[in-house]
Amino acid sequence: MLEEKIVVGNGSEFPLNGMLTIPGVGNAPFPAVVFVHGSGSSDMDSKAYAVRPFKDFAEGLAKHGIASIRHDKRSFVHARKMMKQKIMITVKEEAIEDALLAADILRNDSRIDSNRIFIAGISMGGLLVPRIDEEGDNFAGLILLAAPARRLEVLMKEQMENPDLKKPGGLLGWIMKKQTNKLFAKLDNLYEISDEEAKIITFMGGTTAFYFKDMGRKQARNYLEGKTKPILIMHGDGDFQVSTERDFNEYKRILKGHPDATFKLYPGLNHLFMPVVCKGIKSPKEEYSKPQHVANYVIDDMASWIKK
Length: 308
Hints:
Radius of gyration: 19 Å
Number of strands: 8
Strand content: 15-25%
């Protein structure tokens, strides 16, 4: 296996460090995968406390003769610069543009089979995959990892109100509850206000209501209708951030009749396809602070699907 440092958007205003992983087995040209981050700011490995799912996927796929690109998220590297320039950030600036630039790097590498480039997004990144494919329109197949099927603000509200998720108590808990109520009050009539109004409603961190509105009116289901490309939907039934019934099974309903949709549900695996840690009240920090790796059989399934 060969890992080469690359720069996504080299020469642009927002260059991002990345890693191109080339297999040490098999013969070029190789099939390849572009990885798309979930919500929040994260590095190229999609590091969450002690786990690095994108690194695990890249190294695991390489053992199967499949190349990949992963890169730092733009908001992880350039958030301050973007805020200073008062750039109106949507998921297009945050993720879509860079995913397409990463795919271009693969297409211009003679070691990569340009007809077998796949796109894989985890969590919110999975929600974006159909839209990214629509804008690029040259991916061989789509991989949705622990992807919500519902609007982001709906999912956020569910998580905030979930009694099984650990929340701080005391004064901090009270402050967070007040802030959460204000947040959802601003989003209640999101699709009734104008774009101009949405752009001036801001939240902590500088995110605007327009960020949610832009994403919410361009849902994955809209792009999947009529699509015939191969699609792989993967989900762990121990995921407490995305629902098996309301998300994974919803994709089954959306893709009913699709000629080439594959669904994989993994018992006992969490949102990052690792063995569940929290047995009672759920805490992302507790769940991902234990060093572990993406289950090998998940990577094996993804590799087999890509090769098929």
